[in-house]
Design brief:
Blueprint (H helix, E strand, L loop, with lengths): L4 H11 L3 H26 L8 E2 L1 H8 L3 H13 L3 E3 L5 E3 L4 H24 L3 H17 L4 H19 L2 H21 L5 H16 L3 H27 L7
Antiparallel strand pairs: 1-3, 2-3
Length: 245
């Protein structure tokens, strides 16, 4: 059974809700979450590019579900800022802008710099180094797919927050990381692969050796280069998308 039994038993016994009704509502929640994840992946991967128009009916037919879980997913994504829904229920993927990119990198510098320094001050460098090395290998094996490469790239950076074990920091980072995947898909290309891997290698080497200053400099240099490249491209791509239907 794909639903957590401990949660099901808790609802059943503590609330006195019939077992069949518990199963029904959990299936409904799971379905809505699945639709949410599917639409969000479509946005991040640019299957649904910026300013693309989505329709509840088409999404429901494509996913083989009713409109209710689609509507719930759209509401959640609009609250997160990925979709815009007007009074006439027109649904549009949000546009991209230079200000989006600048804000994301400002957040990255604050979060990653401090997370890195905290990690290297608490004896977690060895564990972080092992996980970063594993993700660097995944990145190298993902060269055939831009989306796979960029998501692996973000997983490399996510190691800092995973190893620290701070759930609040990880929540903030996850939001920034999703933005970075979306922006990277629009402005990055395979010509940057080797440079990214080399820059990650410098970060990894400094972390493995426990060198705070070198790790910090390598990280900030990597972020600066990435931001500069994306800034040069984001203006062009932001005006190149048509509207879907």
């Amino acid at each position: 059974m794909p639903y957590p039994l401990d949660r099901m038993y808790l609802i059943h016994y503590s609330c006195g809700i019939p077992w069949e009704e518990v199963v029904y509502h959990l299936k409904k929640d799971n379905l809505a979450s699945g639709v949410y994840e599917r639409i969000k992946k479509g946005i991040l991967s640019l299957e649904f590019p910026p300013e693309f128009i989505l329709q509840e009916r088409n999404l429901a037919e494509e996913l083989g579900v009713s409109r209710t879980p689609v509507r719930e997913a759209v509401h959640r994504l609009s609250q997160e800022g990925w979709l815009r829904v007007n009074a006439r229920r027109n649904i549009q993927v949000r546009p991209v802008s230079v200000s989006d990119l600048r804000e994301v990198f400002q957040a990255r510098r604050i979060l990653e710099r401090d997370a890195l320094e905290l990690l290297l001050s608490t004896g977690l460098a060895r564990e972080a180094g092992r996980k970063m090395a594993a993700m660097a290998a995944v990145m190298n094996d993902s060269r055939g797919s831009l989306f796979s490469f960029i998501t692996a790239d973000q997983s490399f950076h996510s190691v800092l927050f995973l190893v620290l074990g701070n759930s609040v920091l990880r929540k903030f980072w996850n939001a920034v990381s999703e933005e970075m995947i979306w922006l990277g898909m629009q402005a990055m290309n395979e010509k940057r692969y080797d440079d990214v891997l080399e820059e990650h290698g410098k970060i990894l080497g400094a972390v493995e050796e426990g060198k705070k200053r070198a790790a910090r400099e390598a990280l900030l240099d990597h972020l600066e280069k990435t931001e500069d490249i994306l800034l040069r491209k984001i203006d062009d791509v932001s005006s190149s998308y048509g509207r879907g239907s």
